Amino acid sequence: MDREPEVDLRQLRAFLAVADELHFGRAAESLRIAQPALSQQIRRTERELGVDLFVRTSRSVALTPAGRTLQGRARSLLAQARRDLDEAVRVGRGEAGRLDVGFVVSALPLGPIERVQVFRQRYPLVRVELTEGYSSRLLARIVRGELDLAIVRDPDPDPAVRFRPFRSERFVAAVPRAHRLAGRVSIRGSELLDDPFVFFPAVAGAVATERNLASVVSGGRRPVVVQEATTWATVLHLVGAGLGVTVAPESATLAAPDTVVLLPLEGDRHRSELVWAARAGDDREILRNFIAATE
Length: 295
Fold this sequence. Notes:
Domain HTH lysR-type: 7-64
Radius of gyration: 33 Å
Shape: rod-shaped
Protein name: LysR family transcriptional regulator
Mean pLDDT: 89
Order of helices and strands: HHHEEHEHEHEEEHEHEEEH
Keywords: DNA-binding, Transcription, Transcription regulation
Organism: Curtobacterium pusillum
Helix content: 25-40%
Family: Belongs to the LysR transcriptional regulatory family.
Structural class: alpha/beta
């Protein structure tokens, strides 16, 4: 055969009906079509394949060797087609597929992973892959299409990304246990202005930096960062070791070591905002399902 045969699923179903019944009348009745139309479909399939599939007499219908071979193959092809079509429908409905989700570690005490688990239980055919990182890197991966969505903290605005609120929380000061203010019940942020700071690098984001340090800035003066780290866990351990002080979102300090004292900030109205981030214009059903399941 010089060219690829073109046989569609309807022709395969018609062939199988006749192959199973070995009777054109009963096969036509099961397919709810007229017998002449069924006979035409079978002849068209045989012409397309270039072989006879049935031996027909006035009294009987029998499969040829080619017909017997196609009978098993056609059943498998139709079953696979049904599975593939069902999967496509599930993917289109957001009920199957893959979802790549990023998160900042400091958000974990507030329950985002538990919400991911709710989604997994509701949509078991969706494979959810989790990736940790800090906000600016997670956002860059969303823009590049490497992540579908992420929970980030105090992100810089970006027209390529849309945000959905998750949780808002206060800031607290973290000082070494031997610090001069460690015995206080609370402090003003400006009282830390002359202390060396341990903090994230500037690439972590301008908004995050300004919100964290806003309670300390006073009279145009800003704290001096003497040591940088890329996770709150590292920042807090460095504070506990006496390298400096810091201001952190409350949930980020829940696992602070015993060498750190946490102090509420008097009169501080600034808040750290955790948000879900996704690519602007990405309105796939799988994302809608995720948001609905995790609200």
